[in-house]
User: Fold this.
Amino acid sequence: MIIAVDGPAAAGKGTLTRALAEHYGLPRLDTGILYRAVAAALLADGADPSDAQAAEAAASTLDLSRFADAELRTSGVGEAASVVAAQPRMREALLLFQRAFAARPPGAVLDGRDIGTVVCPDADVKLFVTASAAARARRRWLELRQAGQDVDLAAVEADIERRDARDASRDAAPMRPADDAHLLDTTEMDIEAAFRAAVAIIDAARG
Assistant:
């Protein structure tokens, strides 16, 4: 079984997919980490995230062990990852890895921006998880504060809105719900409520 979970930044995809993977006994792939790792590699090497050739080279030699998870979760890397993710050739370099991961039995839970539309268009169940920009900004702000980063809430919301616009308007695999995706708005939900709603959708779709 392949479960595709898409949606914008800080909508709750990561926490939700971890819970779903555990519930259904499936491996999980946070595809956003792949793009963040490419972005972090470029920044660490002093390269410009908008340099398509450098991004493709970084993707083809990607080493996730090079970075700590906390380093990949910084707002600067997130902004750079959004720039990197708009580059078609770099996306192609990571696409085969993602599809191979999903194809291994017994399946997988994948989250990202284009899982249901590009990476796994034949996924058994597709969810598009979203929330208001204000709610997502507050979640990300709290996450960054807990990680020890002194950030301004308004700046985080502005960053999220920029990333939303870039992700939705890029030529390569723009962020959008698949035609057969189930919309899950988590604006007023805590993680337990979102998890219950997602399980109900998945179980119903499985028959």
Observations:
- The mean pLDDT is 92.
